[in-house]
Every structure is written in C-alpha cells, then in structure tokens.
Amino acid sequence: MRSELAVPSRRAGPDAVLLDMDGTLVDTEGLWWQAVAAVAGRPLTEADTPYVLGRTIEDVARHLGEPGLTPRLTAAFGERVARDLTVVAGAAELLSGLAAAAIPTALVSASPRSIVELVLPRLGHAFDLVIADEDTPRGKPWPDPYLEAARRLGTVPSRCVAVEDSPAGIAAASAAGCLVLVAGPENGLPSLDHLRESFTCFPGGCPGGNAEGARDER
Q1: Model pTM?
Q2: Which CATH architecture does the domain made up of 16-27+86-214 adopt?
Q3: Residue 178: left (phi > 0), alpha (psi -120 to 50), or beta?
Q4: Residue 108 and which of 17, 65, 122, 154 are 20 to 30 A apart at CA?
C-alpha cells in the first residue's frame, strides 16, 4: 500500500470511491429516526434533524442530554435494521460496476461496526476497506473518516469520489477534499458513467479539495 505522501496517480478516473452507508446505500434513516424517538420517549421535530441524521450515535446521545443512552440507541437501531432493511435503488448496479472496473471502494459510515456488519451481507459487495465510527477519533461532520479512508487506500482525498446523502456526511467529505456526489433514497445512486464523468472535470483531482462546486444536485 502506498503512503499518504505518495504521488497521486494519473489514471483517468478516481483512485477510489468512498461510499456512505445509511441513507446512501441503504434506506435506514427512517429506521434511525424511529429508534431515536423511541429511546428519547418523545417525537422528534425538524429542529432535531441536524443533530440526528448523519451523526454518530454518541453525538445523538449527547444531543438528547444523556451520553449513557448510546447502548440503547445502538440496540434500538440494530433491531430495526435487522428486520426492515431496504437497499437503495441503483446501489447494486453501482457496486457491481465498480467491482467490474476494478475501482477500489471504501464504506465510510458514521454507524458503529455492529450496525455495519448487519448491512454488509445485504450489499453483496467486497469493499476494499470499511471505516466505521470506532475507527477514527472524530466522526462526521469532521473529515477524519474520509481522510483515514484515503490514507488506508494509499491515495489522497482529491483523487477520491465520495457519495453521500446527509449534510453531516457532505460536510465531512468536502472538508477532507473529496469530490462529493449527493445521492439518497428518493433518486437512487448515480451510475458509474455519471460518477466517472463528474470526476473528469477535475483531471488531476480537486486542487484545494473543496468539492462544493462539483456536487450532483440530484
């Protein structure tokens, strides 16, 4: 594996594709919302959204004012994922296309590894790397998970495409320096062709790393 300081490759496409899980590859954000409301003992409102969607379970427990709720939140979410998981439209096609094209992939999730392990069999894809909440000191919206994914894959973030759905995830990938494509259950995943075409506007990657101007607006 190359070091993070290696000279970036000159391949036409990205060195790697880094994919969020919840709300991007699988439609679990509604399940998470239900789990949080059940543990909190109250309905959630729009004001809760930025503190719940795309955030780590520890962050949500702190938002609810009780850091000790983390195990209960994890269990409530895991129960719902185990019985009612839906793969987002286009996920299977994109993942199989990436495998056929031999483009390295990483799953970069804010969920703990116990939740990720429930989802992986449903995706049917051999990711080159899985980054879960436990793998970095700070989770999304901090850039740490995406920086770590690029480092472990032996490349730099500006040579990576990140596929995200939540504001926290988009902020994390953008801050790391990835080209960010926005996806979600409503409109499905981008095709491999679209992903490649989006990257060509940054022939050598994204100098400066800010992918905001290169988002797919769904």
Answers
A1: 0.84
A2: 3-Layer(aba) Sandwich (3.40)
A3: beta
A4: 65
